[in-house]
Specification:
This protein is of the alpha/beta class and about 425 residues long. The chain folds into 2 domains: about 190 residues, NAD(P)-binding Rossmann-like Domain (Rossmann fold, 3-Layer(aba) Sandwich), CATH 3.40.50.720; about 170 residues, Rossmann fold (3-Layer(aba) Sandwich), CATH 3.40.50. The protein is built from 14 helices and 15 strands. The strands form 3 sheets. It has an 8-stranded mixed sheet, with helices on both faces. Strands 13-12-11-14-15 form a 5-stranded parallel sheet, with helices on both faces. Strands 5-6 form a two-stranded antiparallel ribbon. A hairpin with a 3-residue loop joins strand 5 and strand 6. Helix 11 crosses helix 12. The termini are far apart. The relative contact order is 0.08. The structure holds ligand SAJ. Ligand SAJ binds next to helix 9.
């Protein structure tokens, strides 16, 4: 059976692009968000998040009447949930938003509907959803009790897109589709095939939940290895970038790049979901998180040591975003470092972030100047490179002469 309508709950970094791409493939999409500003913005054909080319696509599907945003779920053939799963307290996954979103669709569910969770979630969450829906709708049957005969199909399908390349990766990437039953998975795969060019690979919900956590933990552990190497190399007087380049010539070695720490909303969060569920067993995954979370402090210590050689130095801080060539400052280790440096009052900070128009509120005030990268470098005694934005490639090595340089990304040290 074809999917004529889809109701997407959560219109953030994943929900909005997915809703939009579905709509651009002929599906009638109702987008739901608790934030009235997001709803109004989208209905006006605009976007409230930053992602290349998304604005144009949203405008076209809204104008064509294929995407409409609202505050409350409406009846549809399929429901997709893409809401945040942060953690609370001691890295305990917070499923409040997933539960609220799940319960919010219950009143409009009908026999034959498909419900898909996309939010990164601990293993077992899709089964929990079935329980919440069964509480709300005792008149309908669900897979944990009714198996393949259930009225409602439930599946878990993690998103895997890279911020900055979302529209491309949504279509091109392979998808892992995990059903509570094989029929649930097959039904969900049918929906994804309306817009995914990559493979839609079927499994059970628990494996799909774990797959998402595994992918981001894999990256976290490998970045931790690179970050730990960078600290060891500092102690040993070795250029870590050269070292990694040489080691990567081995046919079976592929070391990632060290940096000022790991940011973003996924890699620094998801491994904790595994650690929380398996506290005794997930020793490497926990340690990797600790190594990566320690890295910003190691960078600050380096700046402190350099600053002690000057009287009130000017420190150029290049980049605030959580990674190269994006404007996203959330969970950014670079921002964390600059905020700490401000509090420490080591000197005057010239902060350059070419992807934003003004400094975040946390950096406002005395001792911090928002500057162009070239000006910041020219004024600086200490140059602290935090993000390897392409826009920084124009800074010549000559401009660094006579300055203390702390290059956390290997932009210059690689050469
Ligand atoms: N980083 C390093 N060294 C590296 C690579 C990355 O320090 O060699 C740092 C980055 O600077 C950044 C952080 O890691 O601070 C995360 O950046 P990222 O590019 O590794 O990942 P994200 O957070 O933008 O997106 C990840 C992706 N996951 C994987 O590559 C396994 C993406 O595919 C997921 O969809 C996304 O998480 C998500 O939503 O889970």
């Amino acid at each position: 059976m074809k999917f004529n309508s889809v109701c997407m709950i959560g219109l953030g970094y994943i929900g909005l692009p997915t809703a939009t791409v579905l709509a651009s493939h002929g599906v009638s999409v109702i987008g739901v968000d608790v934030n009235p500003f997001a709803v109004d913005t989208i209905n006006a054909g605009n976007i409230h998040i930053v992602e290349p080319d998304l604005d144009k696509l949203v405008k076209s599907v809204v104008e064509a009447g294929r995407l409409r945003a609202t505050l409350k779920p409406e009846a549809a053939d399929a429901f997709m949930i893409a809401v945040p799963t942060p953690f609370k307290g001691d890295h305990e996954p917070d499923l409040t938003y997933v539960e609220a979103a799940t319960r919010s669709i219950a009143p409009v569910l009908k026999k034959g509907d498909l419900v898909i969770l996309e939010s990164t979630s601990p293993v077992g969450t899709t089964e929990l959803m079935a329980g919440w829906l069964a509480q709300e709708r005792p008149d309908l049957s669900f897979p944990p009790q009714a198996g393949e005969d259930a009225d409602i199909n439930l599946a878990y399908c993690p998103e895997r897109v890279l911020p900055g390349k979302i529209l491309h990766e949504l279509v091109e990437n392979d998808r892992v589709v995990g059903g509570l039953t094989p029929k649930c998975a097959a039904r969900a795969a049918e929906l994804y095939k309306t817009f995914v060019k990559g493979q839609c690979i079927i499994t059970n919900a628990r494996t799909a939940e774990m797959c998402k956590l595994t992918e981001n933990s894999f990256r976290d552990v490998n970045i931790a290895f690179a970050n730990e190497l960078s600290l060891i190399c500092d102690e040993q007087g070795i250029n870590v970038w050269e070292l990694i380049r040489l080691a990567n010539h081995h046919p079976r070695v592929n070391i990632l790049q060290p940096g000022p720490g790991v940011g973003g909303h996924c890699i620094a969060v998801d491994p904790w979901f595994i650690v929380h569920s398996n506290p005794k067993t997930a020793r490497l995954i926990r340690t990797a998180r600790e190594v990566n979370d320690h890295k910003p402090h190691a960078v600050i210590d380096k700046v402190k040591a350099a600053a002690s050689r000057f009287d009130k130095p000017v420190i150029a801080c290049l980049g605030l975003a959580f990674k190269a060539d994006i404007d996203d400052l959330r969970e950014s280790p670079s921002l964390e470092i600059v905020e700490q440096l401000k509090t420490m009052r080591l000197g005057t900070l010239y902060v350059a972030e070419p992807h934003i128009h003004e400094l975040p509120a946390s950096l406002a005030g005395e001792g911090v100047v928002f500057a162009e990268a070239e000006e910041a470098v020219a004024k600086a005694d200490i140059v602290l490179l935090l993000v390897n934005h392409q826009l920084f490639n124009g800074i010549s090595i000559g401009a660094l002469a006579g300055k203390a340089v702390i290059d956390t990304r290997g932009l210059w040290d690689k050469n």
